[in-house]
Amino acid sequence: MVTPADLADLLECEHRSLLHQAWTAGLPGAPRPADPATPGDEPAGDAEATREAIRAGAPVIPGAVLRDGDFSARVDSLVRTADGRYEVHDAQPVRHATPAAVVRLTACADALGDVAGPDVHLGLSDGTTRTLRVDDFRPLVHRLRARLRDRKPRLPVPLWADERPACAGCGFARHCASAREADRDLSLVAGMRGDQRRKLTAAGLGSIDALAAAGPGDRPRDLSVTAFETLRAQAALQVRQDTTGEISYEVVGPDELAALPAPAPGDVFVDLAGDPHALAGEGLEYLFGAVTEDGDRRFTAFWAHSRAQEKRAFEEFVDFAAARVAEHPGSHVYHYAPYEVTAIKRLAAVHGTREETVDHLLRSGAVVDLHAVVRKALRVSQRSYSIRHLEPLYQPGARTKTAVSDVDEYEEYLAFDRSGEPERADEVLRRIAEDTEDDCVSALRLFGFLHRVRADAGIDGPEPAEESAEDALLRAAEEDVAAERRAERAAALAALVEPLLEGLPDDPADFTADDRARALLAASVGYHRRETNPAWWEYFRQLAAPLGDLEVDTACAVPVALEAGEWVPPAGRVRTAKRTLQLACDPDRPHPFAPGDEVRLRYGDTARDGKVVAASAVELTVEESSPPDATTNDRPTAVLPGSPVRPSPKDEAVAELARLTVETLPELPRHPGIDLLRRTPPRLRWGAALPAPGDDLVATVIDAVEEMDGSTLAVQGPPGAGKTYLAGRLIARLVRAGRTVAVTSNSHKAVENVLSAAKKNAPDLPCAKRAKRTPDPAAPWEQPKSNPALVKWREEHDTGHLVGGTAWTFANAAIREEPFDFMIIDEAGQFALADALAVSVCAKNVLLLGDPQQLPQVVQGTHPAGAEASALGHLIGEADIMPPELGYFLDETRRMHPAVCAPVSELSYAGRLHSHPSAAERSIEGVEAGLYLAEADHTGNTTRSVEEAAVVTSIVADLHGRAWTDHGTTRPLTDADIVVVAPYNLQARTVSRALEEAGFPGVRVGTVDRFQGQEAPVVLTTMTSSSAVDLPRGLDFLLSRNRLNVALSRAQALAILVCSPRLVEADIRTVEQMRLVAGMIGLLTAARPWPAG
Question: What Gene Ontology molecular-function terms does this entry list (predicted)?
Answer without folding.
Answer: 5'-3' DNA helicase activity; ATP binding; hydrolase activity
